[in-house]
Amino acid sequence: MNLRHQTLFILTQLVFFTEGRHGGHNGRVREETKSLEELYAEAIAEGGDLLVYHGGDLPDAEDAVANAFREAFPQINITIVVDYSKYHDARVDYQLETGTLIADIVALQTVQDYPRWKREGQLLYYKPAGFSAIYDGFKDVRDGAWFSHVVYTFSYFYDTELLAAEGLQPPATAEDLADPQYTDLIASSYPHDDDASLFVYARYVDYYGWEWVKRFADRQVEFNRGSNTPREAVASKRKAIGLAGSAPGGIDTVRVMIGPNATSPYLSWGQRMAILRRAPHPAAAKLFVNWIISLEVQTTLLAGSSTRTDIPTPPGTLPPWRIRQANSLCFQRFMEDRANIE
């Protein structure tokens, strides 16, 4: 075998190995063209089971998603296990290391895990239908190793009625939260326990300095574990202001400081999702990711939190990736700097 033929042979074997490792694409991944009905049939033929690991605070946080999927595909036995992302990624790493993988899909806040898992060859290269419509900053553009299916937002929020009862005006900026008039009125998640909460506080430090932290520490803030806790404190009328979590919905008197006119930095990030390369149920996993990113789901179940660029936002609003104060891409860089965070 001459040198030219030997080189071609080596390159051919390299391509074969890479494609086998990542699902047969080697960077030439095309969007799925099969219909949901075809994918459903394949998932049934595979056995009809699916296990999703999803980051979140409460065990029932993804019940609406699971129930909607069951209604659409009743012959698929879906289980969505919700736990803190920092626990789920450790579970996945352990299962991969020990050859005991049971999860098919991982949808986590720990966005820094996905480039690492990709480098390690642990993610399936796959682009569901509609992948091209997802904001480029929220996906692995070239290979489809991951994408974001939903946007979550953390900021500060308040109940105007409760503040008025105290004779107080709402805080105009996050800097005002350190004002003595708001003492004993604020609930927050622990910033050291949740990286998204930590990011919000880190941005406040960048903007207002460590003196703000010293003054804020005197406000007798109620700290609890879980980004759900400030929302629950304000929704139950126990506290007037919530911080470093998501705001309660459906309460007319609650205002949340987000959007193009936000006076302070906040966080809107894309929750990353991927199919594991050694997933026990890859056909069911493909069905799920095609369904979750579909226009129907993104405009109904996930309306207002879509990662797709082809879905118009309500008048007067912008998608988070077009709002500097939302820090969507800054958060991804922040999460990758583990030495600084930990």
UniProtKB/TrEMBL annotation:
InterPro entries named in the record: SBP
Top-level division of the source organism's lineage: Eukaryota
Keywords: Signal
Signal peptide: 1-20
Protein name from the UniProt record: Uncharacterized protein
PANTHER family to which the protein is assigned, alphabetical: ABC TRANSPORTER SUBSTRATE-BINDING PROTEIN, THIAMINE-BINDING PERIPLASMIC PROTEIN-RELATED
